[in-house]
Amino acid sequence: MPHPAFAAVQELEAEHGRDGFLTDHETGDMLEFSVAPAFYQTYWFLAACTAAFGALLWAAYEFRTRQLQRDFQKLRGMIETIPAMAWTALPDGSNEFSNRRWAEFTGLSAEETAGFGWTAALHPDDLHSFSEKWRGSVATGEPLEAEARFRYAASGDYRWLHARGVPLRDTAGKIRRWDGILTDIEDRKRSEHERERCGCSGRDASNGKRAARVRLKSDRPGP
């Protein structure tokens, strides 16, 4: 059961609101009264709660942001140290990032590579075909698998590289970015060329031997 004084305050508040006037029936005087709200109903308390909640959200956001930045820097450090040339591209196919190995190989800085500046390192004879394959992958979302010659800054020559790129999608299936690597396959290409050349020479030699045997038989006198 509530205290009589508290019950009286509730009755006054219900009848007249928090602020009002009462009439003294004995003297006829008007008495002004005001009922103070509970602390949890005050504006300052609500404002303090709102500020505390906002500060908590901001602290959680800052913590998560710093955590993601640390993870990103750790991943970037790993990418910088791998022997292959790693790159990332935006959904439209423009370059977003390339690691140090790419800069060392091509001599192109990050600024020169950004966007579609990386095409400056392509061999002129491979520029069109490679660009078409890349545009096709960007348009369809299919992984990129292509080979082309890129300028090697150390010698000024062009070396064969194998390019592979895969799309990174969000939960809705939309491409967020492309991740890829470039691998030097110059030695493999030279070996293939040597095998092809030796194979042709071997076939030519065999054909020559058969032709010589035919001539010898035809030159022999008859019985």
Structure description:
The protein has 223 residues and is an alpha+beta fold. It has two domains: 20-81; 84-192, 2-Layer Sandwich (Beta-Lactamase). The protein is built from six helices and seven strands; from the N terminus they run H-E-E-H-E-E-H-H-H-E-E-E-H. The chain has helices at residues 4-16, 43-81, 100-106, 110-113, 124-140, 186-219, and strands at 19-23, 30-34, 85-89, 95-98, 144-151, 158-169, 175-184. The strands form two sheets. The chain has a five-stranded antiparallel β-sheet with strand order 4-3-7-6-5, sandwiched between helices. Strands 1-2 form a two-stranded antiparallel ribbon. A hairpin with a 6-residue loop joins strand 1 (19-23) and strand 2. It starts with a helix and ends with a helix.
